[in-house]
Amino acid sequence: MEKCAIITGSSSGLGLEITKSLLFSGYTVFGGSRSGTELEHDNFYDVELDITSSESVEEFFETVREFTDQVHLVVNNAGICEMQSLSETSTENFELHLATNTLGPFLLFQGLESFLIKDETHIISILSTAAHYGYPNVAAYNASKFGQLGLIQSLKKEWKDYKVRFTNLFPGAIDTPLWDKVGSKFSRDKMLKTSDFMTVFNFIVHAPPTIQFPEMTFLHKDGFLE
Ligand SMILES: NC(=O)c1ccc[n+]([C@@H]2O[C@H](COP(=O)([O-])OP(=O)(O)OC[C@H]3O[C@@H](n4cnc5c(N)ncnc54)[C@H](OP(=O)(O)O)[C@@H]3O)[C@@H](O)[C@H]2O)c1
Q1: Domains of the chain
Q2: Model pTM?
Q3: 121: number of Cβ within 10 Å
Q4: What is the residue with the minimal CA distance to atom 28 of ligand 1?
């Protein structure tokens, strides 16, 4: 089998574009999502995954294990975002953000450990500028992405002896289907395009393995959304 990649959230937006790009580059891709995709390719395994459920994550890795026990590239991408003021945010909605954006990566990394290839695996996490900066009316998203960053920073030190590469991406707003559900009035013209994101992603993925990109922040040239 050629190089193997795992990606969460492969059914839409960035995850779908990344999946297509990795397949084009010759990777065998195991994509996880709840709704799946119509994408068909000999090297694509469209696996049902609810990242908030430990049982579902276990089943996802059992499926991967049927084909390989080595994963070269991991894209920690699945996520949700809604915009609401603090008083509008229900406890359930806050918990759902934490379950998807913080607990989800925790479960992913737990399942991943036995698939790591020493000195080789590259783990790319799609965080957000919202993992570094607080924005109004997205407390649940902000808290969940800050939490995810803390998880990764701890893990990076814990897994030091594996010598795997971690890349944390902090993109600003990108025009994807995520914004159909966010409930905001922001202009899509002031967002990065998915193709902009892919320029950065592909540069990092295809760079020589002797280089590491610990962090990268990038956003539309006009700055943050206001
Ligand atoms: N778009 C932006 O402006 C932007 C900016 C910075 C960072 N990001 C981050 O980029 C990542 C991808 O966002 P996107 O813009 O591509 O959004 P999107 O088009 O809404 O895609 C989100 C993906 O996450 C998956 N997902 C959500 N909940 C899931 C769950 N419980 N289990 C498994 N998969 C789940 C969805 O699949 P199913 O619904 O099929 O499960 C979907 O494939 C997110 O982490 C987001 O926070 C986005």
Answers
A1: 4-218 (3.40.50.720)
A2: 0.98
A3: 22
A4: 79
